[in-house]
Amino acid sequence: MASKLNAARRASRIRFLILDVDGVMTDGGLYYSADGVELKRFNAQDGYGIVRARECGVGIGIISGRETPIVEARARALGIDDVYQGAADKVEAMREIQVRYHLRDEEIAYIGDDVFDLPLLSVVGFSAAPKNARPEVRRKVDLVTSVAGGEGAVRELIDFILTYRPRHGSR
Fold first, then answer.
1. Rounded to an integer, what distance in angstroms lies between the CA atom of residue 117 and that of residue 114?
2. How many domains, in total, are found in the chain?
3. For the chain, is the Cβ count within 10 Å smaller at the N or the C terminus?
4. pTM greater than the 0.90 cutoff
5. How do the pLDDT tens digits run along the chain, 171 residues long?
6. Residue 169 lies in a domain
7. Is residue 170 part of a domain?
8. Domain interval for residue 132
9. Cα–Cα dist 145/131, whole Å
10. Which residues of 1-20 are buried (b: 16+ CB within 10 A; e: fewer)?
C-alpha cells in the first residue's frame, strides 16, 4: 500500500472513478429468491457518495465481470451511463472509457476486490480495495478502505478522492 502522502498526490489527479460491483458496491454475497431471482444489497451512503462525486465533476463508471439486470437498475438510479457487464477484460473496458473522455491513466481510479481486478488496478492512476478484498489485492493498491465492500467502501474512497482533488476540475 502506498504512503498516505503518495496516495493523496495520486488521488488529486482523479477525474474518473471506475467501480467493481460484487465485493465492492455489494457485500459480495449472491442472494436468490425462492423463484431464482438474483438479489443484491447496495449501500445508500455509497449511492450518495457517487452522486456527490458526479456533482464535483468526477465521472463514474462500472466494470463488472458478472452480468445482471440489477446492476443496470442501480446504475440508472445513480445516473451512471458507463456500465460494462460481463467484462472478461476489464482493462479493455477501461480503455473504452478512457478514449471516450480523453483521460490519461493517472486520471482514472478503480476499486476492486479480487485477483481478476489486479490487471486493471495496476494500470490506473489510483487503485483501491475494500477491507474485505483478497490479501494479494490489498497489498497492491494505493488505499485499503477501513470498511468492507457493501458497507460504505465506495463512499470512503470518494471522500478520500474529493478531499485531495482540486475543487475546480471536471470531466
1. 6
2. 1
3. C
4. yes
5. 567 778 899 999 999 999 999 999 999 998 999 999 889 999 999 999 999 999 999 999 999 999 999 999 999 999 999 999 999 999 999 999 999 999 999 999 999 999 999 999 999 999 999 999 999 999 999 999 999 999 999 999 999 999 998 875 444
6. no
7. no
8. 4-164
9. 5
10. ebeeeebbebbebbbbbbbb
Distance CA 34, CA 48 (A): 31
Residue 45, domain CATH: 3.40.50.1000
- What are the angstrom distances between the C-alpha of 72 and each of 61, 115, 125? 11, 24, 26
Instruction: Give the residue among 140, 146, 141, 150 at the shortest CA–CA distance from 20.
Output: 150
Cβ-proximal residues to 117 (8 Å cutoff; 6+ apart), any chain: 20, 90, 110, 129, 137
CA distances from 87 to 61, 62, 91 (A): 13, 10, 9
Q: Which three cell numbers stand for residue 166?
A: 482540486
